[in-house]
C-alpha cells in the first residue's frame, strides 16, 4: 500500500486534532471498498491477485502562527515510495510557494520564509507533487492542501463613526438611552478571545452607564437639570480578550447635551418699575422696558405681557420684544400733565407654552407693579377746533366779520396769546385778524370767479416764556352772486346761402356765464326790441340754453346785400337778472351744392373784398407776372457783374519756394502739344493802355538794372536781399504792365554770371521794340557759363 504521509509540527494539540478531523471520510470508505474487492476476488477462486491502486493523501490544512519572524518547519510531506535513497523529488506550488513557503525537495519538509499576518491573508492553498529524480515521472499524483495562519491578539479595537454626539431632554428618567458606541477588532473572532470586546465607562459616572457587551449608553441619574449643567463628556473604553489582562483597549468620547423643557416659569427681578415720560410725548413713544427672567430657552422661554388697571390699558400698551423677550411699554394716547400726572399699573408675564409635567399653571405666571410719572412740559397753545370752515358772499363789504378762532394755553401758567395770519397762505391780503381776540374780517373785495376758496393759516403764539406757537387752517368759501353778464359761447360767424328758404335754421347759439348759481344756469335769447319787426331774421329760443337764428324770407342775394347785422340779447335767471347784447354779422354766401360756404381760398377772399372772382384772378395774374420779370432782371444784372469781376483778376504776391533753384529761369514755355512759341511774331497789346503810364518804368531803366544785377550775380544768391528785391520789383512791374495777357502766367528771370558770350537770356534784353532785327531763330548759340555750385567745365556746357 502506497500513499502520502504527512508529518506535522506540534504547535498545539488542537492543531493536530483539527488536521485529522478535516480528513474526508471518503479516504476511509475507499480503503474499506478496496478490501471488499479483494475478498470478492478470492471467493471467486481467482489465482491472480490484482494490485491495489495507489491513492495519496488529500490534505486539508496545516497551521502556522502569525507574526512569527523565525523560519520554522510547519510540516513534512513524504511518499510511501520514498525509501530514503533521495530518489524522490518533492515540488511545492500554489499561493506563496517559493516566497512565503518552501519545501525541501529531498525530505519534503515545509518551512516558512517570513512572518505572516493573518489580517492580510488568512490561509494559503498549495499543491504538492513527488517526482522520480531519475525517470522524471510522478511517483504520486499532485495533491492540494491548505496552510492556515493562526491568529494572535495583535490588533487594537477601533471605534466606528466617531465623533459621537447625542442629546437627551433634561429631567428624563433613569435608563433613558443616550447613544450606542460600536468598536471592531481585526483579530479572528472564531479563535480564542482575541476579538471578544467589552465596554466600560471611564468618565461620566454616576450620570451615565454603558452596557458591557452592546455599548449602549443610558442615564443613571434622575432629574438632570439643563439650567444647572447643559453638557456632559462621557468617556467609554473598550477592551478585547473579554477584559482580561494582556489585551488591548481604546476609548472614545461621547458629547451628551441636555435639551430644554419648560420646567421654569417667568420671574420678575423687580417688584416695582418706575418710568417718567413728558406730557408732549408722541403716540407710540417707548415709555420703558420690563423683563421677566426665564431659565428656559427657545420656545419654552417665550412669554406674553399684559397691563391691568382702570384707564392704563387704553393709555398704554405693552408688546413683547421677539429678540430679548422684554415687555416694551408704549404710549397709546396723548398725555396731559394738568389732567393726570401719574399712572399705576400691574404688569403680568405668562409663558406661551406650558408643560404641566414639571410645573403647575400658576408657576408659569408672574406679576409686578409699573408706575409711570407724567412730566410737565411747556406746551404750545391749543385751538378749540382742529379746523375752521366758513362761508362768505363775494359781495361782502370790506370790514365784514368772517369768524373768530380761539386758542388757549393748557399749561398751569396760562400765558396770554396773540393771533396772526400766515402771509404765505394769504398772498392777496384779502383778510386780516385781530391779534387779541382772533376775529377775522374782510380786508379786500372778493371775487368768486377769481378765487372760490381761501385757505388761511392762523398762528397763535404765547407772548411770554418760550413763545411757543401753533397753527390752524381756516377754509373760507366765497359764495356766488349774480354779478356777471351772460355772453355767447363763442365768436359766431353765421352765413346764409343765396338759395335759403324762409324758416330755415341759419345758426344755433349757446351762452356762458362765469357765475355759478345754485339751481344752475338758465339763459333766455331774444332780439333787441325795435319799432318794427326785423324782416330778415328772427331768434327762436329752444328753452334749453340754446337758440336758433331763423330766416324770415327767401330772397337773399349777394348782389342786393352781402352782410346783415343782427343784435342778440342773452339774459340769465339770476336775481337780479342780467343780460348782454352781442351783434352777429350774417354774410350772404354763394354756397356750394352741398350747402357749404367757402371760408378760405380765392373765392372767400373775393367775397370779403366785394369783387367778382374773375376780377380778383386778373389782379393776381398781373402781380405774378411783375414778380417774375423783376426776378429775371435781377438775375441778369448779377450775371453781368460776375463776368466783369472775372476779368479783373488780382495777382497775389510772388513767393519763391526755398527748394527750387533760382539761378536760371526760362522766359517762354512750350505751347500745347509740344509746339514752341514763335518769337518772330510782333508784339500786340492785349488791352488799351491805362492812364497810369507814369508809374511804368522805362525799358532802358529796366535794362540798366538787369545789367547791374548781372555784373554782381556771381557775388549773390537766391537768399540775398538784393536778389529778392530785384524779383519784387519785376513783380510790381508785371502787375502794372498794360500789355500783359488777361490770365496768370510766369515771369522768368535769370542771373547768367559775368562774361557770357551769348549775352543775356532775359526777355527784357533780348527783344526790343526799336530793333527790326529778325530773331526768328529762338535758339542761341551754345556757350560756356560761369560754373555754379563748384561744377567742372565740362558740366557747364548747354
Explain this structure.
The chain has 798 residues and is an alpha+beta fold. The protein is 14% helix and 31% strand. It contains eight helices and 43 strands. The longest helix has 35 residues, at 613-647. The N and C termini lie far apart (146 Å).
Brief write-up:
Keywords: Calcium, Cell adhesion, Cell membrane, Glycoprotein, Membrane, Metal-binding, Repeat, Signal, Transmembrane, Transmembrane helix. The chain is an alpha+beta fold and 798 residues long.
State the main characteristics.
flat, 43 strands, Immunoglobulin-like, 798 residues, four-stranded antiparallel β-sheet, four-stranded mixed β-sheet, alpha+beta, disordered C terminus, 8 helices
Task: Write the topology of this structure.
Blueprint: E1 4-8, H1 13-21, H2 25-43, E2 61-65, E3 73-79, E4 88-94, E5 101-103, E6 109-112, E7 123-132, E8 138-150, E9 158-159, E10 164-169, E11 177-180, E12 183-184, E13 198-203, E14 208-210, E15 216-219, E16 231-239, E17 249-259, E18 267-268, E19 272-278, E20 286-290, E21 292-293, E22 303-308, H3 312-315, E23 316-320, E24 327-331, E25 342-351, E26 365-375, E27 382-383, E28 387-393, E29 401-404, E30 407-408, E31 417-421, E32 431-433, E33 439-442, E34 453-462, E35 469-479, E36 487-488, E37 495-497, E38 505-512, E39 524-527, E40 537-541, E41 546-551, E42 563-571, E43 579-589, H4 601-609, H5 613-647, H6 699-711, H7 721-735, H8 763-766
Parallel strand pairs: 2-8, 10-17, 19-26, 28-35, 37-43
Antiparallel strand pairs: 1-3, 3-6, 4-7, 5-6, 7-8, 9-12, 11-15, 13-16, 14-15, 16-17, 18-21, 20-24, 22-25, 23-24, 25-26, 27-30, 29-33, 31-34, 32-33, 34-35, 36-38, 38-41, 39-42, 40-41, 42-43
Transmembrane segments: 616-636
Membrane topology: Single-pass type I membrane protein
Pfam family, one: CADH_Y-type_LIR
Amino acid at each position: 500500500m502506497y500513499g502520502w504521509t504527512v508529518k506535522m509540527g506540534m504547535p498545539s494539540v488542537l492543531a493536530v486534532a483539527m488536521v485529522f478531523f478535516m480528513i474526508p471520510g471518503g479516504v476511509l470508505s475507499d480503503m474499506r471498498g478496496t478490501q471488499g474487492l479483494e475478498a470478492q476476488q478470492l471467493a471467486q477462486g481467482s489465482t491472480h491477485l490484482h494490485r491495489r491502486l495507489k491513492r495519496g493523501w488529500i490534505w486539508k490544512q496545516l497551521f502556522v502562527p502569525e507574526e512569527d519572524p523565525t523560519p520554522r518547519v510547519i510540516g513534512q510531506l513524504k511518499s510511501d515510495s520514498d525509501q530514503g535513497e533521495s530518489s524522490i523529488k518533492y515540488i511545492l506550488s500554489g499561493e506563496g510557494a517559493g516566497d512565503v513557503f518552501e519545501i525541501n525537495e529531498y525530505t519534503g519538509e515545509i518551512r516558512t520564509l517570513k512572518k505572516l499576518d493573518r489580517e492580510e491573508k488568512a490561509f494559503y492553498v498549495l499543491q504538492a507533487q513527488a517526482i522520480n529524480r531519475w525517470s522524471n515521472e510522478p511517483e504520486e499524483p499532485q495533491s492540494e492542501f491548505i496552510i492556515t495562519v493562526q491568529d494572535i491578539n495583535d490588533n487594537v479595537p477601533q471605534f466606528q463613526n466617531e465623533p459621537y454626539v447625542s442629546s437627551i431632554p433634561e429631567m428624563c428618567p433613569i435608563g433613558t438611552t443616550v447613544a450606542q458606541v460600536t468598536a471592531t477588532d481585526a483579530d479572528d473572532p472564531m479563535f480564542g478571545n482575541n476579538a471578544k470586546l467589552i465596554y466600560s465607562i471611564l468618565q461620566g459616572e454616576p450620570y451615565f452607564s454603558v452596557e458591557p457587551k452592546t455599548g449602549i449608553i443610558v442615564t443613571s441619574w434622575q432629574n438632570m437639570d439643563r439650567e444647572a449643567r447643559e453638557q456632559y463628556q462621557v468617556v467609554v473604553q473598550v477592551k478585547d480578550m473579554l477584559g482580561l489582562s494582556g489585551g488591548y483597549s481604546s476609548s472614545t468620547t461621547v458629547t451628551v447635551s441636555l435639551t430644554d423643557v419648560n420646567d421654569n416659569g417667568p420671574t420678575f427681578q423687580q417688584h416695582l418699575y418706575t418710568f417718567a415720560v413728558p406730557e408732549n410725548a408722541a403716540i407710540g413713544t417707548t415709555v420703558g422696558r420690563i423683563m421677566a427672567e426665564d431659565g428656559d430657552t427657545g420656545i419654552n422661554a417665550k412669554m406674553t405681557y399684559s397691563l391691568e388697571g382702570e384707564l392704563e390699558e387704553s393709555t398704554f400698551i405693552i408688546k413683547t420684544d421677539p429678540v430679548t423677550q422684554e415687555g416694551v411699554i408704549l404710549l397709546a394716547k396723548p398725555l396731559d400733565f394738568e389732567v393726570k400726572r401719574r399712572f399705576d399699573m400691574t404688569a403680568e408675564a405668562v409663558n406661551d407654552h406650558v408643560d404641566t409635567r414639571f410645573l403647575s399653571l400658576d408657576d408659569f405666571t408672574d406679576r409686578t407693579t409699573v408706575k409711570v410719572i407724567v412730566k410737565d412740559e411747556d406746551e404750545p397753545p391749543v385751538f378749540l377746533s382742529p379746523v375752521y370752515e366758513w362761508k362768505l358772499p363775494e359781495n361782502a363789504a370790506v370790514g365784514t366779520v368772517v369768524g373768530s378762532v380761539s386758542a388757549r394755553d393748557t399749561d398751569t401758567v396760562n400765558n396770554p396769546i396773540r393771533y396772526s395770519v400766515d402771509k404765505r397762505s394769504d398772498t392777496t391780503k384779502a383778510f386780516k385778524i385781530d391779534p387779541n381776540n382772533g376775529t377775522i374780517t374782510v380786508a379786500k373785495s372778493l371775487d368768486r370767479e377769481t378765487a372760490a376758496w381761501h385757505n388761511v393759516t392762523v398762528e397763535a403764539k404765547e407772548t411770554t416764556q418760550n413763545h411757543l406757537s401753533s397753527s390752524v387752517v381756516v377754509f373760507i368759501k366765497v359764495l356766488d352772486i349774480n354779478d356777471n353778464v351772460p355772453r355767447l359761447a363763442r365768436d359766431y360767424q353765421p352765413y346764409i346761402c343765396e338759395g335759403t328758404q324762409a324758416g330755415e335754421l341759419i345758426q344755433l347759439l349757446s351762452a356762458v356765464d362765469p357765475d355759478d348759481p345754485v339751481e344752475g344756469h338758465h339763459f333766455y335769447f331774444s332780439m333787441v326790441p325795435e319799432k318794427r319787426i326785423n324782416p330778415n331774421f328772427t331768434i327762436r329760443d329752444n328753452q334749453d340754453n340754446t337758440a336758433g337764428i331763423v330766416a324770415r324770407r327767401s330772397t337773399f342775394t349777394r348782389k342786393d346785400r352781402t352782410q346783415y347785422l343782427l343784435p342778440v340779447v342773452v339774459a340769465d335767471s339770476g336775481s337780479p337778472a342780467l343780460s348782454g347784447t352781442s351783434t352777429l354779422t350774417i354774410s350772404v354766401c354763394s354756397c356750394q351744392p352741398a350747402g357749404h360756404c367757402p371760408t378760405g381760398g380765392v373765392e372767400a377772399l373775393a367775397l370779403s373784398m366785394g369783387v367778382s372772382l374773375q376780377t380778383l384772378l386778373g389782379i393776381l395774374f398781373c402781380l405774378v407776372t411783375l414778380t417774375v420779370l423783376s426776378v429775371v432782371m435781377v438775375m441778369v444784372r448779377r450775371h453781368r457783374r460776375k463776368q466783369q469781376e472775372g476779368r479783373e483778376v488780382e495777382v497775389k504776391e510772388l513767393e519763391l519756394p526755398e527748394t527750387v533753384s533760382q539761378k536760371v529761369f526760362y522766359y517762354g514755355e512750350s505751347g500745347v502739344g509740344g509746339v514752341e512759341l514763335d518769337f518772330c511774331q510782333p508784339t500786340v497789346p492785349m488791352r488799351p493802355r491805362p492812364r497810369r503810364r507814369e508809374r511804368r518804368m522805362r525799358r532802358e531803366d529796366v535794362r540798366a538794372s538787369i545789367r547791374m544785377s548781372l555784373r554782381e550775380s556771381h557775388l549773390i544768391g537766391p537768399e540775398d536781399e538784393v536778389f529778392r528785391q530785384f524779383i519784387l520789383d519785376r513783380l510790381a512791374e508785371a502787375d502794372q504792365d498794360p500789355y500783359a495777357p488777361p490770365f496768370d502766367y510766369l515771369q522768368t528771370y535769370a542771373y547768367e554770371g559775368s562774361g557770357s558770350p551769348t549775352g543775356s537770356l532775359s526777355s527784357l534784353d533780348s527783344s526790343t521794340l526799336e530793333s527790326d532785327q529778325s530773331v526768328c531763330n529762338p535758339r542761341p548759340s551754345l556757350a560756356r557759363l560761369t560754373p555754379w555750385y563748384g561744377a567742372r567745365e565740362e558740366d557747364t556746357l548747354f
